[in-house]
Amino acid sequence: MLQDELLESRSVSRSPTKRRESVYTSPSKSRLGSTANDKANIEPELRRRIGELTKKCDTLENRYRNLKEIGIVEANANMDKLRKQCESMTNASNNLIASLKAELEAQKVLGQQSRSLQRQLKERETEVARLTTQAEEATGQLSSAQTEVKALQTKLAAARSTAASLENAAAKVPGSAIKNGGNRANAAITAEAAHAAQFAQLKEDLYTDLTGLIIRDVKKRPADNLYDCIQTGSNGTLHFKLVVPHVSSANFESAEFQYIPLLDENRDRALVDVLPEYLTVDITFVRQQASKFYTRVIDALTKRRSTAAL
């Protein structure tokens, strides 16, 4: 109904003069409608309604214009907000991309440095392994040299002892006995004994060279013989004494030998780590096991030990 009124009011409000002319100059309607009294009664009502509709139309037009202006303003404001947001997001994205690119470049540099450091580390590890091997070889050579020096010193001491013994034996022979023709036999015997002693020393030296065993001294005691021995090897030098009892021929095989190690806590610390436990304490064994005992001594002093085992 309101829509019909708006349409009617628009058609009427377009031309107030024509509207009045249509009201006052329409002979067809006046002839078909009614009398002049009826026209007089309808005209004020129509004017009132026309005025109301005109006011409503003006009000709606004002509202429309206001809403249109508000919509345009808000749209512009929203557009500005969106533009600012887009600009800020674009700037943030550009900054993020730039920072990611910079970080990527930094990571590339770090990766190159890391690969370079890894290569250097491998080279250093190889160099350390080579130097460690050289150090181990040098340590082994030094140990062998020290062992050889000790063996040579011991041999020198034994040779000097033998030479001194021979000189003492020769000095005991008086010069008058040598000049005397009747004592020439004694001189010959003494010379032969000295030669035999020298020959025995040569055999002992050969045995020492072949086995590394040096017999420093022999003491004959009432119940046994005491041998002062040194066994050399690549792992060290073992100083020990061996007691061999005097027995009859019937008990020769069952005679018990006694092994007495002479180990110094400071000097032989490295040697004690290599020796089996039974060679660091006093032990006894029968003559039949003497060769087995000596074989184990040789093994302990000559077999190469790995670094992990040590």
Radius of gyration: 66 Å
Compute the average pLDDT.
Answer: 79
Number of strands: 5
Largest sheet: 5 strands, antiparallel
Topology:
Blueprint: H1 2-13, H2 16-24, H3 27-32, H4 36-171, H5 175-179, H6 184-211, E1 213-220, E2 224-233, E3 236-245, E4 256-261, H7 269-274, E5 283-286, H8 290-302
Antiparallel strand pairs: 1-2, 2-3, 3-4, 4-5
Helix pairs in contact: 1-4, 4-6
Structural description of this entry:
This protein is of the alpha+beta class. The chain has 8 helices and 5 strands. The chain has a 5-stranded antiparallel sheet. Helix 1 (2-13) crosses helix 4 and helix 4 (36-171) runs antiparallel to helix 6 (184-211). Residues 23-38 have a biased composition (Polar residues).
Q: In summary, what is this structure?
A:
This protein is of the alpha+beta class and 310 residues long. 69% of the residues lie in helices and 12% in strands. Strands 1-2-3-4-5 form a five-stranded antiparallel sheet.
Name a few traits of the molecule.
about 300 residues; alpha+beta; Aspartate Aminotransferase, domain 1; 2 domains; 5-stranded antiparallel sheet; 8 helices; 5 strands; rod-shaped; disordered N terminus
